[in-house]
Write a structure and sequence with these properties.
This protein has 115 residues and is an all-alpha fold. The chain is built from seven helices and no strands. Helix 1 packs across helix 2. The longest helix has 17 residues.
């Protein structure tokens, strides 16, 4: 089977993995972050995940903070700015909770240290 036929995960699959965030999902997402070609799928999946959380009748802000913190600690340097942009793209409480976890992780400061 050629590399061109390899199935890229769609944004809904990535959103499901981000929502669950168990050990198996973390391993899958780490593997996804190793390949720069998957960055768009990862970020689109994150947007879907955050939009689902924003539309849900119950907001689990602790879960979203943990997601932000885990992504901030785990994501490679090339994704840190884009994760921050995604976290700041809405004023909804779901995005604020994700942003709080992302900020707590210090990923952006590690990627771009102060001079």
């Amino acid at each position: 089977m050629s590399a061109d036929l390899a199935a890229f995960p769609d944004r809904d699959t990535v959103a499901d993995k981000l929502s669950a965030l168990g050990d198996g999902e973390k391993a899958y997402l780490r593997l996804l972050m190793e390949n720069a070609q998957q960055d768009e799928n990862l970020l689109e999946g994150l947007n879907v995940c955050l939009n689902r959380a924003a539309a849900a009748p119950f907001l689990n802000s602790l879960k979203l903070e943990k997601l932000g913190q885990w992504l901030g600690e785990t994501a490679p340097v090339r994704l840190q700015m884009r994760l921050t942009e995604t976290a700041r793209s809405s004023q909804h409480a779901a995005y604020a909770a994700f942003r709080a976890g992302l900020t707590r992780s210090g990923g952006l400061e590690k990627a771009y240290p102060k001079a």
